[in-house]
Amino acid sequence: MTEVKGQCQAAAENTNHNHAFITIADVARGHQHGILGTTGPAIYSGDSHVHRIFVKTTTDPKGGPLHWHFVDVTTGPAIDLAGGEHTHQFCGETSVVLGHDHRFNSVTDAAPDQEEYNCN
């Protein structure tokens, strides 16, 4: 995009976007945990990009020992959506705590596509 004073131009690369996410892990030992947060910045790979997710789950709301798990995964590549936005799938297992873990599989909230515009 040609720079014109007072107008917007496309940035060469946008690593500053991230995605919100919220999901519930599967049931293990009679309870579940929430997984929510914001991804890390974009990590470019080939024609797409991924994001790291590193968060702590919500605590166990049932009557057992109070505990939580860590989630440390990398999303899949961008999945194009209508309206110039994209999302990412993420899945995996939490850390093992008190002899169990939890599985999860979800998608992030949408974010604008990789091209970003800088305005003067």
UniProtKB/TrEMBL annotation:
InterPro entries: YmaF. It holds the Pfam family YmaF. This is YmaF family protein.
